[in-house]
Amino acid sequence: MRVSKSEFGVFDGKTVHKFDLDNGKGITASVITYGGVLQSLKVPNRDGVSEEITVNYDNLADITTKSSYFGSTCGRVANRISGASFVLDGERHQLNPTNGTLTLHGGIKNWAKVVWEAKEIQGTEEVGVELSLVSPDKDEGFPGTVKITVLIKLNTNNEIIFDYTATTDKATPLNPTNHTYWNLSGNYKSTIKTQKVQLFSDLYTPINQDLVPTGEVLSVQGTRFDLREPVLFGEKINEENGIDHNFVIARQGKEVGELCEFGSLYDPESGRHMRMFTTEIGVQVYTFNFGKDTFPYTKHNAVCFETQKFPNSINTPSFPSCVLRPGQVYRQTTLHRFTVQ
């Protein structure tokens, strides 16, 4: 197990560092302090060959100018907030809009677009990075000063873990996530259409034309969003219809806050299998529907599993609350476990 630190570039007058993690079993990861980005993850196939299974750029200039949140830590509120505003405790808060009248992933200069403080985590069974950030009152329009710590760890069980802890001095919505784009084929040999997905979810939240949930919670039964049994992505998406929806995680008897398995991704050709666990209540599945022209950043060449509370919950009273108040501690853990079959 080892972790090493190097300089990756400069952004906004601050040095960006890269932390390279190695679990000694063929899995390596790289995390950079710009955006709290998981910049690389290499995992062995069934023949023991380690290859890249995430989509990203290899240099800071492209990451800061071209990235579609590849591997980013998104916040203060991930996903979309309708009207770029919300009312909390009787007070309206106006946010910086990013997509027309929407605020996406926390605003213009959100947590994915700043440099985090960081230090190494070195243990006998895990290595990683402790990222920390102070988001000031009125940051992108959000109330309260939020202090957040994100641990990104790689362990000897072939797991990568995202641990979030946060506090605030004023009531504020808080709903961070990690936005890694996964493709288990290894070095993008195929699109996700040839990979099998499974989600333990009986319900999903349909969306309107702005990709914002309507407020309904519907059964996946009889829809293309029924992913309860392993199925090729190619049977569920096509050029006209991808997936960019929130799924309600079936907690399987586990309380909210307990780690619960919510799904998996499997590439039959390489044998790579990724099981996924989280303490959260929902997962936004995004099949890279707005891909770019340049390979490997092309349409449907990766999938995101963004664990979070339901999108736009701050404006949807029927959804579980995403509000954090003084004296409370926000916690979230999401874990990806890698094996071969």
Structural overview:
The strands form seven sheets. This protein has a nine-stranded antiparallel sheet, with no helix packed on it. The radius of gyration is 19 Å and the shape is globular. By secondary structure, it is mostly beta strands. The chain is 2% helix and 43% strand. The protein is built from one helix and 28 strands. The mean pLDDT is 97. Strand 23 (260-266) and strand 24 (272-278) form a beta hairpin. The chain has one helix at 60-66; strands spanning 2-11, 14-22, 28-32, 37-44, 50-52, 73-74, 80-81, 85-88, 91-94, 103-104, 117-122, 126-135, 146-155, 159-168, 172-173, 177-178, 181-182, 196-199, 203-205, 218-219, 231-232, 244-248, 260-266, 272-278, 282-286, 303-308, 323-324, 330-340.
Helix fraction by DSSP (H/I, runs of at least 4): under 10%
**Which runs of at least 5 residues are low in confidence (pLDDT < 50)?**
none
Mean of pLDDT: 97
- Give the SSE order as H and E letters: EEEEEHEEEEEEEEEEEEEEEEEEEEEEE
Radius of gyration: 19 Å
